[in-house]
Design goal:
Largest sheet: none
Keywords: Membrane, Transmembrane, Transmembrane helix
Protein name: YrhK domain-containing protein
Distance between the termini: 31 Å
Number of helices: 6
Strand content: under 5%
Number of domains: 1
Low-confidence stretches: 1-13
Helix content: over 70%
Structural class: mainly alpha
Number of strands: 0
Mean pLDDT: 80
Length: about 240
């Protein structure tokens, strides 16, 4: 769902201690965001699901921040010289495109949840936004899947088999979770055809359960990513 670690040593920014610290914070924030997402979806099974929507909004906001940080890190790594992308496919398709696609997808998903929350909280005045909310959930999940596919194009130029394996262990859960969110959003949208539901009633139990499993996959990917970030930092210290 999100690209968290820089792909190439030459693209990383700042002094090594600051760089490592930034990557640790980045990875930890994403992991915390997945916990909030999981809690938000589980809360949808309760009698009062609206607080769960708040957790989802906070988790998505953190994911947006993480992606923007990742984008700025890569841009800083090339001194914001965007023309360099003409000469490097990975720079354009992965290190620049992935954070943008994931950020936009997260924003769309955030807006979808926000519109549903406003409909549940404020009532009739926001019902007109609800018709767009379900489509936003689908669009956001589509971009997550696209970003995950783009991320699979990442190549580590200075990486041993362990780092390569960890990278795949990050990509697979992110892609699987994104697909689960997409399937859940599509099934949920179809389930609401012909109904007169509003607010949280627009979120079917199928969407909730697929969201729970998708969040679990993101959490697994987040844990693996933390391990990968520490492994990368260790390798840099050894080779320094």
């Amino acid at each position: 769902m999100v690209k968290l670690a820089s792909a190439r040593e030459s693209r990383m920014y700042g002094p090594r201690p600051a760089r490592n610290r930034a990557e640790y914070i980045n990875a930890a924030l994403y992991l915390f965001a997945t916990v909030l997402l999981l809690g938000g979806f589980v809360a949808q099974l309760s009698v009062e699901p609206k607080p769960g929507l708040v957790l989802l909004l906070i988790g998505l906001a953190l994911i947006i921040v993480v992606n923007l940080h990742d984008l700025m890190a890569h841009l800083a790594g090339i001194d914001y010289r965007l023309r360099l992308m003409e000469y490097d496919a990975q720079l354009a398709l992965v290190e620049f495109a992935v954070p943008i696609v994931q950020t936009v997808g997260s924003i769309l998903f955030f807006l979808g949840i926000l519109f549903l929350f406003l409909g549940a909280e404020k009532g009739h005045g926001y019902y007109k936004f609800e018709q767009h909310a379900l489509n936003l959930l689908i669009a956001g999940a589509v971009l997550w899947v696209v970003g995950s596919i783009h991320n699979s194009c990442q190549i580590y130029e200075r990486a041993d088999a362990q780092i390569q394996l960890l990278q795949e262990s990050v990509l697979i859960p992110f892609f699987t979770g994104s697909v689960l969110f997409l399937v859940g959003a599509i099934l949920n949208s179809r389930a609401q055809i012909g109904t007169d539901h509003h607010g949280v009633e627009l979120l079917s139990i199928t969407w909730v359960w697929l969201g729970i499993f998708g969040s679990i996959m993101f959490f697994i990917g987040g844990i693996t990513n933390v391990v990968k970030v520490f492994a990368n930092a260790t390798n840099r210290r050894i080779t320094a």
